[in-house]
Amino acid sequence: MPRRYVHQPVGIGAAAVVGAPGLAGLTPVQAVVEMVGLGWGGLLGSRLPDQLDPPNRPGHWGFAHSVSVATLAVHLTVRAGQMQAAIRSLADELCAARPEFEEAPVGCCLMGVAEILVRLGAGFAVGLSAGYASHLVLDQLQSKSSLPLICRGI
Predict the structure, then answer these.
(1) Model's pTM, two decimal places?
(2) Which of 10, 101, 132, 147 gives a 20 to 30 Å CA spacing to 18?
């Protein structure tokens, strides 16, 4: 089975491949912020299945390593563009509201921080599902047995 040192870079790469097309049309700063979110999401998504089903015994695959969860992860990855657009619209609203706070520097700064966090979230949401899906694909490619439908034994 692949170890963390394989899952993590592949998860980050999967997140970059899935999320990169969605970065078109953003300013360079916005794109960098979303790429950081993609990377974090891909990293954490690639580790999540083994956090939910710890690999402390042979055949450890439970619900987190199942076909049902893999289907959900792939579905969310395919819908990545829609997720990004929805989260980005909130970030754009925060950006548009920032000039209203020019008289209050703290408020303007807080709006800027909120926009950055939301843009990180836009990348993170996509990266998480792509990283999770990449983990399950790697496990399946390296295993002699198939992923369980719901959990081992079903």
Answers:
(1) 0.81
(2) 147
